[in-house]
Please model this.
Amino acid sequence: MKLNEIYRLAVEKGMEADPRGEDRLKKILSDRKKEYEKLDDKKKSIFDEQKLSNPYDDTRILWGDPNTEIKKVLAGIDIGGEEILLADRLREKGDFIDLIISHHPEGYALAGLYGVMDLQEDVLFKLGVPINIAEGLMEPRIKEVERNVLPLNHNRAVDMARILDIPFMCIHTPADNLVVRFLERKFEEKKPETLGDIIDVLLEIPEYKKAAQLNAGPKCVVGSEKNRAGKIFVDMTGGTSGSEKSYEKLAQAGIGTIIGMHMGEKHRLEAEKYHINVVIAGHIASDSLGFNLFLDLLEEKGIKIESCSGFIRHSRLQKGGRV
Model:
């Protein structure tokens, strides 16, 4: 596969699994095109035209010729200078790495992370929070994240890839969309009654089982394993954590349990205040699951996958097709 084909496949699969649905995504891209057409030439010259076909500002080719043929990938949850030097060292030893893929965004995709957070507004709306309230809750949080990424030296790893001439890309929200869809289907099938049942379901999944062996497995952080789960919300996509003020509205909408990748203490205390159970499935394990669901598509095409940077690689392929 060519580098650009991998990129387009990531966007396509992310959109297929997107909780907002096809019509909403078409509207978002259509609105972006209209806004672009209104810009003057000066503003068009700095506009990222990938935004017109890709709704995920945190997923980009960061360095490399889009027509590069890819046969082997080094994939990691976080890619920094160490991992890029690792790829270069592997090349020196004759293990040729054609592409480095990071799950978490780097470069201008990291600078644009806040641009995917409006996804959370639609998720809250689907859960029963009025859209005006969802937008009101998320707007200050999105601006906060935008301010937080402004001072970052976000292009350091990209510069290393450029100097060593190693193609480099990141796939963030598309992979997170895949893990949400996977887990929602799993919980719909298993219908766990208690938080303990939720943890048991998670531990049936290889990435979470391996994380548990590394002392990073699923945990209840609000509520006990005996608590009944009620209505479950799998909260693992939309860039980064949303507003801590959303928990009151989620409780009013009938949410009994949130299953998340991670949760800050300020958010946890708000969930506890409104009696919402919280199960933290595990950050790196959850990221690994979503990443694996995408990388299996590359493996099906004959691309070899080497894992690093905490990525728990588990292939769901077997001879003749998918497991």
In short: The two ends are 23 Å apart (CA to CA). DSSP finds 14 helices and eleven strands in the chain. The CA atoms of residues 2 and 69 lie 4 Å apart.
